[in-house]
Amino acid sequence: MTIAFCVVTALCEGIDLQAAGVAALGIGAEFQPSADEFGTFFSASTFGLFLGALFGGRIADSVGRKKVLVTSVAFFGIFSLFNALAPDMQWFIWIRFLTGLGLGGALPMFLALVTESSGAGRHDSSVAMVYAATPFGGAIISLISLLITPSQWRVIFIVGGILPILLAPIMAVWLKESSAFQRVRSTISANDGAALSAMPKRGSFKAIFTDDRAPRTVLLWVSFFLGQLLLYLLLNWLPTLMVSHGLTRMQAAGAQIGFNVGGGLAALLIGYLLAGRYRNAGIVVTFVTLPILLVALAKAPRELGAIVITVFLLGCSVIAAQAVLYSMAPITYPTTIRGIGVGAAVAFGRLGSIVGPKLAGFLKAAGHGPSQLFMDLLPLVIVGSACALVLAWFTRRATARDFKAGD
What we know:
The protein is mainly α. It has helices spanning about 1-20, 25-30, 35-65, 65-85, 90-115, 125-130, 135-145, 155-175, 180-190, 195, 215-245, 250-275, 280-300, 305-330, 335-365, 370-375, 380-400.
């Protein structure tokens, strides 16, 4: 039941994360923002995500995963509804920031809950498979955008708000707290000196850099930053860039659906591979193909078939890469600091989420077309892929010691 709730939460998260991107054409037609204002609008929710992930993870190590998750889901649902009431871009930016606070608090919590609810040896694959629901949520909201006119963009935020608002009270009643967190709390309550001395202090930011965890933490942060810079740039700007590339609005929305469906299927596949003998091969293929497919999209001819296929494959690679990173983040840290460890990694990634849309707005305002813009990103993607591959090697070697069954 815990994993099922986390899947639905990830689905709602995917809907709300991509709501702004798929509603962008309607918002642009109504409010006429500049490219820079659009970049700020896209980045506002991700700045909220940064703060929500950082503080939500820290609080969860003290009060529990369930309380933070339920509160965060209700919070982003309520403010998603408020998006539909925004009278101008300034209000819109502030409401998206508040929506992001809830989204940021929810993500590290369902990652930690899935990790702590999975069987021994299946932690990373379970996280990857649950994360697959996020792009499917994005595909759902993109499909809804095809069924309405751009002037009806408020419907997108209404759908994104109603689902989590309905979900939060159900989770408050039926979702169970993490058994691993409860064991740690029981140990602390019992004042077991020997056990306590072996544990990092709960929610300790310093502890995520001690006991040889510093290299993995730094690699995790850099990988998240660059990976989410690319992901959120694409999620927010891809429909607009595809229209600039010669596609119609309907065709661009179809390409966005392909990006999400491909990513969801790839996340499911990589989750399966992470639990078996092809784990290393799956990780290598994921990160090696990422820069190759970005170049392929930049050089793709202006033909619908070629662009849609390339976007589909790029979605496979980009979102599978995120699934791998999210699967490695929880197993990098023991239970007492898993909330702050995962929260800090997600928060650092959100800095990339802030930079990505702003960077695209800056490059577009400077006159860079879609092809040139994608090539501008290539060095960053190569560095991010290299860091992720090194991180996977570190994680494979080090977590056998740090992450024992039941921890």
